Q: What sequence folds into this?
């Protein structure tokens, strides 16, 4: 955790005189580090959970770091304290909230963990455009955070009917055990939940890689994945086929690491995921 926080603060790249919004107060640690660097008057931190916020405030005051603590939904930012030069989010999002862009100065930086239901996730470093209507930037680190409260992927029960069985053209371990591949497949198929993965190859061959979109479902056996009935699929989409195609696409691009991907987000909520350059939109 200290390493991840150090990485995030390095990418935030604060300078004297900057004002920072910290989303997800938690213990108050990151707000305290920012206050130590910039002065408590320059830091506002927002936390959804009142008890956590109260405890963090007491801790910060006791350490003579009396930042502004706010109880509320940090995805709405804190307009009363805006504009901010930097926004530091320590919970993962699937959608970057437009309010955070609106409340950041042009040229300002937003550092936010970003993931998909398939793969949580990577650290996104966005720079707000000169006209303030969008923000764009690359993924810069491999991180996994707890989700922002209302952006947790839904999990659920699924009824498997009219199952279509067949072999797999892809070893599920090529995705399950490979973060760059899983991240890229998640970016290509952002509505797909990776429901469960048993990392081990148990001797009964019951381990499965499961994917689900709320309607269609598929799994591929981890052991004997190229066997005759390794894949089971049901519903209108052939989800294992889509995972296989997304993985093949990733390989054709030269198996890019997460640092070659980025996102452009508009204040209105449009998300464009790109590879190598904001002009090369992939989804
Ligand atoms: C990984 S912890 C943050 C760690 C924190 N920065 C620290 O230094 O301890 C994530 C925090 O985000 C909070 N959180 C989740 N969703 C939120 C939201 N929509 N608005 C504000 N805080 C949120 C959680 O309650 C949790 O305390």
A:
């Amino acid at each position: 955790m200290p390493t991840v926080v150090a990485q995030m603060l390095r990418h935030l790249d604060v300078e004297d005189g900057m004002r920072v919004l910290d989303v997800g107060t938690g213990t108050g640690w990151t707000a305290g580090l920012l206050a130590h660097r910039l002065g408590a008057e320059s830091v506002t931190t927002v936390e959804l959970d009142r008890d956590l916020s109260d405890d963090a405030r007491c801790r910060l005051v006791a350490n003579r770091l009396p930042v502004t603590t706010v109880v509320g939904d940090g995805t709405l930012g804190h307009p009363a304290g805006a504009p901010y030069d930097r926004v530091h989010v320590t919970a993962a999002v699937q959608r970057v909230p437009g309010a955070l862009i609106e409340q950041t100065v042009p040229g300002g930086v937003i550092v936010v963990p970003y993931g998909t239901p398939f793969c949580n996730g990577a650290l996104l470093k966005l720079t707000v455009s000169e006209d303030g209507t969008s923000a764009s930037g690359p993924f810069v680190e491999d991180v996994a955070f707890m989700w922002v409260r209302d952006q947790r992927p839904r999990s659920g029960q699924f009824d498997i009917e009219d199952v279509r069985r067949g072999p797999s053209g892809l070893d599920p371990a090529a995705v399950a055990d490979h973060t760059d591949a899983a991240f890229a497949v998640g970016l290509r198929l952002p509505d797909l939940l990776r429901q469960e993965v048993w990392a081990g190859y148990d001797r009964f061959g019951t381990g499965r890689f499961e994917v689900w979109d709320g309607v269609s479902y598929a799994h591929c056996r981890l052991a004997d994945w190229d066997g005759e009935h390794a894949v089971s699929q049901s519903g209108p989409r052939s989800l294992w086929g889509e995972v296989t195609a997304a993985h093949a696409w990733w390989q054709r691009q030269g198996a890019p690491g997460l640092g070659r991907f980025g996102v452009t987000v508009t204040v209105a909520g449009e998300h464009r995921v790109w590879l190598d350059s904001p002009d090369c939109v992939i989804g």
Notes: The mean pLDDT is 94.
